[in-house]
Amino acid sequence: MILYPQERIEWFKSNGWWGKETIYTLFANNAKMYWDAPALVDAPNKPQLVGLEPLRFTYGELFQTIDNLASQLITAGIEKDDIVMVQLPNVTEMVCVYLACSRIGAIVSPIAVQYRHHELNKYIRIAEPKAYIGAKDFNKFNYLNMINEIIPDYPCLKVIIGLGNDLPENVLSLSDMLNNSSALDTLNNYLTQVDVTSDDVFTICWTSGTEADPKAVPRSTNEWIGIGSACHQLCEVKEGYNILNPFPLINMSSIGGMWLPWLLSGGGAFVVHHPFDLKVMLGQLQDEKINYTLIPPAVLNSLLQNEAILQSYDISNLKSIGSGSAPLSPWMVKGFQEKYGIFVYNVFGSTEGIAFVSNFYNPEERALYFPRTGNPLRYGMPNYTWQKPISLMQQTKIVDPNTKEEITEKGIPGEMCIKGPNVFCGYYKRPDLTESAFDSEGYFNTGDLFSIEGDDGNWNKYMFSGRSKDLIIRGGWNISPEEVENAVLEHPKVAEVAAVGYPDDRLGEKVCVAVVTKPGETVTLEEINLFLEQKNMAIFKRPEILLTLDMLPRNPVGKVVKSEVRAMLT
User: Fold this and answer.
1) Phi, psi at 447, each rounded to 5°
2) What distance in Å separates the CA atoms of residue 401 and residue 439, rounded to the nearest whole number?
3) Model confidence pLDDT, tens digit, residues 507-532
4) What's the whole-model pTM score?
5) Domain coverage including residue 532
6) Which residues 6+ apart lie within 8 Å of 266 measured at CB?
7) Above 50 in pLDDT, residue 147?
8) Does 569 or 374 have the greater pLDDT score?
C-alpha cells in the first residue's frame, strides 16, 4: 500500500532523503554485521506482567526468529497490505511482530494496552484489521476474552494471535509461532512473488483530536526513517549504543525516538520496559549498560532532587537522555550535564511527523529552545542552517492561527506548519480531515504554537508555546500556557504543573494552574504569584486560580490531558 504521491517520492529520493531500505532490511543489515552481539532484551519483571520468562536475543537469534514468525504469519493467511492490530505491552515479542510484518509487507497498527471495548470498536471499525495480537493476561485483564467478544461484529478479523499460556481454541500462540521453523520454504516462495518496498505503509498509528473518532496516521518506512533520523542525529545516538525504551511502543516517542535510532545506529541492544517502574528502570540502566533512553521531565527532576537514588546505581554508561511532553527545567538539564556528564535533549514530536530536537551545547538553551530548521533560502538568514542533514529535510514556518499569515518577527506565538520527508501524507480514510490539515503550499498545520527567538538579529530558534486550542486568551492578551508552566515549575515546592484557561464572563478567560507539589510540601496561590512577581512576569500572565492535585491526568503515552484539567475546574 503506497499512499504518498509518486512525484513527492521521487523528489525525496532525488535529494537523498528517502532510500530503498525497509524496516526489516535495516535490521537484517545490522544482523549480518553484529551476528553474535546482544540485540533485544526483555525487562526482568516480565513474569509478573504476562506470566512468561524474560527473553534475550543476539542479532543472529533474532534474525532467525523473525523468519520463523514471518513464515507462520503467511501460513495463517496474513500477507502484504493486511493490517495487523497489536495490543501488547513492551515485551520482546512485540518487536518481533514489527520486524516480521515488515518482512512480509503487512501493516502494523499498534494500540495502547489501556484501551478496552469502547476504544477498540472505534479502531477496528476504521482500520478493518485482518488480525489481532494481544496478551492473555496483562495488568489483571484478559485481552483475548475482549477480542472474542468483539469478533462477531467484525467479519474482517480472521486471525487472533495470543501471548501467554492456556490460550482459547481459536487463538494461535505467538510464542509457538516465534519458535516454529517448519514453514520457511513458504516464506521464501512468498517473497519471490511479493515486492515489499520502503514506500509501502508500515504502520497505522493513532492520534486523538477534537473529533469523536481517533485519527489514523499511516506511515511508510521512509517516513519513519525521516523522523527517526532527527533523534538519531541530534541526540547523538552512536553505533553500538544500548537503548532503553520505557515508553509504549505504539507512537512517535518510542518508535521514532528510540526504535528507529536503534535500527539506524546498529550494534547495540534494544531493551524494553513496561509499565514504568523507577526501580526496574534504574536497574536496567545499570545492568544493561544503557547509553541512551527517554525519561519524562518530572522523573528527571525528581531524580536530580533525590541524588541518593541515582548514587545507588551505576549509570556511568548513560550518555544522553531525550525528554519531552512537558516543560524541561533549565536547572535540571544543566544539573545532569555538570554532575553526571549526561546530555538531556528536549524532544518534541507528533504522530503526524513534526520532529524537533534541541541540540544546543548550552544546557539552558537546550531546555527552552529548538533549532529553527528549514530551507535557509526562504529567509535568507546567516547561520540559519544546522550541522545535521535533518535541518534541510524539514521545512517550517509559523502562521497566525486566525489569519494564516506568516509570522516572521520574533516573540509572537503562532501555529507551527511543517513539511518534508518526515511528515505523513494524510489521515487514513479521512480525505476531509486531510484537506483541512494541509495548506496550499503543502505544509501540515500542526496545531502547536511556537515563537521565533534568537539574539542579535539571528533569529535561529523556536520556543514551544503550547497547543493552539490550549492558548489562553485573557482580556484580549494571548498567553502561552508553556511560558506560565516553565515559570511556575521553577518554584521550589512545585513538582509538576499544567496551565489552562478558565472561562470568565468579563475577561474571556482567567489563568489557572494545576500543580502537583513535591513530597511533604504545600503551596498557595499567593506564594506562586509572589514567586512570579520576583521573576518580573507580567501581571496578566499570573494565575488567578490554583488547583492542587495528587497527579496530573495523562493519556497512555504520558502527555497531560488538559481537557480533563478543565473538567476538574468546571
Assistant:
1) 80, 0
2) 12
3) 878 999 999 999 999 999 999 999 99
4) 0.85
5) 471-569
6) 29, 30, 33, 34, 239, 240
7) yes
8) 569
Rounded Cα distance between 233 and 358, Å, is 11
Count of the separate structural domains present in the chain:
3
**147's grid cell:** 477480542
Residue 402, C-alpha cell as written in the block: 486566525
Do 118 and 181 fall within a single domain?
yes
Percentage, residues of the chain above pLDDT 70: 95
Which amino acid makes up residue 259? W
Give CA angle at 383 (378, 387), nearest 5°: 100
274 — phi, psi (to 5°)? 180, 145
- Phi/psi of residue 436, nearest 5 degrees: -80, -15
Collect all residues with Cβ–Cβ distance below 8 Å to 440 and sequence separation of at least 6: none
Going through 140-298 in order, the beta strands assigned E by DSSP cover 159-163, 172-173, 201-207, 215-220, 243-245, 270-272, 292-294
- CATH number of the domain where residue 427 is located: 2.30.38.10
Whether residue 24 is predicted with pLDDT greater than 90 in this model: the reply is yes
Domain identity same for 546 and 397: no
Per-chain mean pLDDT for the chain = 90
Question: Which of the four pLDDT bands, split at 50, 70 and 90, describes residue 540?
Answer: confident
CATH number at residue 58: 3.40.50.12780
How many other C-beta atoms are found inside a 10 Å radius of the C-beta of residue 316? 12
Verify that 403 and 504 share a domain, yes or no: no
Q: Could you give the C-alpha distances from 241 to 23, 291, 323, 348, in angstroms and in order?
A: 18, 5, 18, 22
